[in-house]
Design brief:
The protein is of the alpha/beta class. The chain folds into three domains: about 1-200, Rossmann fold (3-Layer(aba) Sandwich); about 210-295, N-(1-d-carboxylethyl)-l-norvaline Dehydrogenase, domain 2; about 295-430, Rossmann fold. Helix content is about 45%, strand content about 15%. The protein has 17 helices and 14 strands. The strands form three sheets. A six-stranded parallel beta sheet has the order 3-2-1-4-5-6, with helices on both faces. The protein has a six-stranded parallel beta sheet with strand order 11-10-9-12-13-14. Strands 7-8 form a two-stranded parallel ribbon. The protein is globular. The relative contact order is 0.09.
């Protein structure tokens, strides 16, 4: 099939590349000419394992192309995917849909035959209704169908999540569109993916409700971790014990920093905003947001206690600063709160992350990026394991630190506290 992906951000690029790898002809459209030129050369603007190889492979095989020509790309395609950003509005909690609606206007002007127009972007309930109105104003023939088809891609696992999805949600009451999309996704359905055809509004809400629930699981286990620390219980025992209950499941029950990234923070705010428009109080999700906001401050208090309330001139090393492993995404990462706070108190901070230097810390004179783990650890008084990169899971601290024994605060619980203490380290995890 001939597909057009509008937007080459995370969702649009990953989805477009994976669709091309399934044998479809895909045009990924972006208004940024420099970005398009880079993509044609195989230069990827995001860190996602395996993505570069797939881009090069499918571009070479001419199943994948990149363009700034939106009108022509729409006309050449049978299915149009809207994959632009829906960030939180400045100063508000609702989703900024301006990019979605601007794209809808352009689509309306460019339709030359029947098109299936799909929102891949995460959008609030009734957005599809509004898109339909916008396009209809520009295209009186109504030779189009508006469908909601939310993505469920995890950063760092996106390609695998696309190829082996838990479910494919298609929100449409149009029989023709549903049949075509079931055919499009048939290679994934044949591998065991559940195909759910529902209403458009239901599909829109499924995405938000899913993310809000996962955010709740993370926040819940973080609060239980706080209790574990006071009662001398290992939170990992709690996570395992709860996860064995099939009604609960073990995923997203790992205590650690606050949730971050491109989805959970903005989507929890957006669903509350939507609910308020319908005069519904989502008190549980509001509590989740509040608790998550407090999480970084609680961890900072823990750091303060570990250093006996003496932060000034202490050398603190952060291993990992992204919000999670296998991504370069810094959005709403706990490090963006913790590092500036410690820096302002006079700490000297070094950090290492496999995805490299972060401009977010430019303005802090006493924050420095190191090119390797060994240099980052030099002369540190406190080592904070912030992100669970595989690079950190088998560090030989004795070799790196020699005779020094800094405090190690493992915010991801990736090490055995027994083994670390046997080696003579002052080791502390979360929820222990």
């Amino acid at each position: 099939m001939n597909l057009c992906m509008i937007g080459t951000g995370y969702v649009g690029l990953v989805s477009g590349v994976c669709f091309s790898d399934l044998g479809n002809n895909v045009i990924c459209v972006d208004r940024d000419q420099e970005k398009v030129n880079s993509l044609k050369k195989g230069k990827i603007p995001i860190y996602e394992p395996g993505l570069e190889e797939l881009v090069l492979k499918n571009y070479k095989n001419k199943r994948l192309n990149f363009s700034t020509d939106l009108k022509n790309s729409i006309r050449k395609s049978d299915i149009i995917f809207i994959c632009v950003g829906t960030p939180t509005k400045k100063g508000g909690s609702g989703a900024d849909l301006s990019q979605v609606y601007n794209v809808a206007k352009e689509i309306g002007k460019s339709i030359n035959k029947f098109k299936i127009i799909i929102t891949k972007s995460t959008v609030p309930v009734t957005t599809g209704d509004e898109i339909e109105k916008i396009i209809q104003k520009k295209n009186k023939k109504k030779n189009f169908s508006i469908v909601s088809n939310p993505e469920f891609l995890r950063e760092g696992e996106a390609i695998r999540d696309f190829i082996f999805p838990d479910r494919i949600v298609v929100g449409t009451n149009d029989i023709k569109s549903n049949r075509i999309l079931k055919t499009l996704y048939s290679p994934l359905i044949s591998k065991g993916a559940q195909y759910l055809n529902t209403s458009r509004r239901a599909a829109e809400l499924i995405k938000y409700a899913s993310n809000a629930f996962l955010a709740t699981k993370i926040t819940f286990i973080n609060e239980i971790a706080n209790l574990c620390e006071k009662t001398n219980i290992d939170v990992e025992d709690i996570s395992i014990g709860m996860g064995l209950d099939k009604r609960i499941g073990g995923r997203f029950l790992r205590a650690g920093p606050a949730y971050g990234g491109s989805c959970f923070p903005k989507d929890t705010k957006a669903i509350i905003n939507t609910a308020e428009k319908f005069k519904i109080n989502l008190s549980v999700i509001k509590s989740v947001i509040k608790s998550n906001k407090n999480r970084s401050n609680l961890l900072l208090n823990r750091v303060n206690k570990l250093l006996k309330n003496t932060i000034k001139n202490k050398k603190i090393c952060f291993l990992g600063v992204t919000f999670k492993a296998n991504t370069d995404d810094m959005r709403d990462s706990s490090s963006l709160i913790m590092i500036p706070s410690l820096s302002k108190k006079g700490a000297k901070i070094s950090y290492y992350d496999p995805t490299g230097y972060k401009k977010e810390f430019n303005k802090y004179k006493n924050v420095s990026f190191e090119n390797n783990i060994k240099d980052a650890l030099k002369k540190s008084d406190l080592v904070i394991i912030h992100t669970e990169w595989n690079d950190f899971k088998s560090i030989n601290f004795k070799s790196y630190l020699k005779n020094r024994k800094p405090i190690i605060f493992d915010m991801r619980n990736i090490y055995s506290d027994t083994k670390m203490k046997q080696q003579g380290f002052k080791y502390f995890g979360v929820g222990k």
